[in-house]
Specification:
The complex is a heterodimer of chains A (282) and B (271).
Chain A lengths: L6 E4 L8 H5 L6 E4 L9 H6 L3 E3 L2 H20 L2 H9 L19 E5 L3 H12 L3 E5 L6 H7 L1 E3 L3 H7 L2 E4 L13 H6 L5 E4 L8 H9 L5 E4 L19 E3 L8 H19 L12
Parallel strand pairs in A: 1-2, 2-3, 4-5, 4-7, 5-6, 7-8, 8-9, 9-10
Helix pairs in contact in A: 3-5, 3-10
Chain B lengths: L9 H6 L5 E3 L10 H6 L3 E3 L6 H16 L2 H9 L19 E5 L3 H11 L4 E5 L6 H7 L1 E3 L3 H7 L2 E4 L13 H6 L5 E4 L8 H9 L5 E4 L19 E3 L8 H19 L10
Parallel strand pairs in B: 1-2, 3-4, 3-6, 4-5, 6-7, 7-8, 8-9
Classes of the chains: A alpha/beta (282), B alpha/beta (271).
Family (chain A): Belongs to the D-isomer specific 2-hydroxyacid dehydrogenase family.
GO molecular function (chain A): glyoxylate reductase (NADPH) activity; hydroxypyruvate reductase [NAD(P)H] activity; NAD binding
InterPro entries (chain A): D-isomer_2-hydroxyacid_DH, D-isomer_2_OHA_DH_cat_dom, D-isomer_DH_CS, D-isomer_DH_CS1, D-isomer_DH_NAD-bd, NAD(P)-bd_dom_sf
Amino acid sequence: VGKKVQAIYMWWHKPVINKELLQSMPNLKVIANSGVGMDHLDLKLIASFGVKMANVPHAVSSTTADTGMALLLASARRLVEVHNISISPSMDYSEADVLGVRVAGATLGIIGMGRIGYKIALRAKAFEMNILYHNRTRRKVEEEQAVGATYCEKIDSLLQQADIVMVVVSLTPQTHKLIGKRELELMKSTAILINISRGAVVDQEALVAALQTGVIRAAALDVTYPEPLPRDHPLLKLKNIIITPHLGIKTEKASYMITEEAVENILAALNGLPLPSEVLPS
Amino acid sequence: MWYHRPAINEELLQSLPNLKVVASSGVGIDHLDLKLLSSYGVKVSNTPFIVSTDTADMGMTLMLASARRLVEGHEMAVSPDTEYFPADWLGTEVSGATLGIVGMGVIGYKVAERAKAFEMKILYHNRSQRKKEEESAVGAVYCKKIDDLLQQSDFVLLAVNLTPQTHKLIGKRELELMKPTATIINISRGLVVDHDALVEALQNKVIKAAALDVTYPEPLPRDHPLLKMKNVIITPHIGSATKKTRWVMMEEMAESIEAGLAGLPIPHEVL
């Protein structure tokens, strides 16, 4: 069977692509990933077998940006907490002291201003937020002006000023544990951390400590390491955290668009044409 | 007044002969009998504009949380029974979807401004049509008949004030006009929606989901069916509940009270 396979369309990091699999599929030409993150793949290994790789950057950006905004608003307005109060069997609640944070006029710091980060900036601008961003490279002036974003060459500057920090980077050796004890301590004690990138970008132990001791106000994580977390993990016990099960691109429409984009890449590879969104080992 | 307390009735007014002004928190004044208060010579004020942005934000929060199944997702993520996240667990796309705003006042318009950034198609129904420039600025299309809005929207957001005309504005008929894949979001007043019809519509999958910052009564009785539904998010009327906004509300109420006591024109007087 392996000899017949020419293309693999991955869904949720399966199948696992390792040496054995690649050796069993000598006619494999292309692997298309149903997402944009490629950190679960050994790109060099795959390339060494002459197999091309593609991701689906266009299909995922809006949906992921929406996830970021959903977490931003939910954590600012304490949505999960107040919903639980609303439906709890006990009638004993006082509305007056469940206050959230006003989003309008607050400062959003976006770490990672790629396609997704930029779409978040577009949305946040409509909420009248002040936008700072940190990125490997600076965006063009017109792009910055369109969303009113200010570049922070040093991440420290962003961390010190932001009321909400949104992490939107891809996972690389450079971004592994990008947010650790030092970064959390630079943040305001009233700040909220939101992670929609990869669990490993945040030092989870440091985050637990920071949330427990009030170093930062709250966090909202769509991604953790691992997923799901072990059931006895301290993050699950905290009051000031929202954890979602990697919602990132999980909508019917996105699933459809992702598959379309993946198939485009697969067909291109099978026809010997350039791939629309090829990913090369760096 | 905070959260409609104390209840202002004839007995209370008779027992407070020196009462000059009632400062009500928030913008809604449906809980006050204005004619009665006027007959006792008592002036009334509210805090109309400061609440608008936070309330619009609450509408967007409820829409996003409901569409992406955020509350359900969080419960799954933290539940002791969860072993893995199912691959086919999906929500509904917000970007590019159609939002129907019922009531395009200050709050409704702010919702439109936010929704535009999500590339949503915006329809609106209002007593009167907005100016062309206002419509173009947010890309909103007027639906003179509420039916047209209900039939085309993926999300229906209620931002009207409560009046005799908007009481039970959304009932069985309106819910049946909505798409079965649609979600209703209420940031106006509980009484704008017929709750029994809503329960039935949700149970029979006539609509997909509901997200309510307001109910009738508030809070709902603890055995109310809405509290048990997975596809319903309920928040305890926190549209304006941010520290900064509440601070300004208090300031405005204090200003109105001071003016009322000094016999000066009252800021934000409700006539």
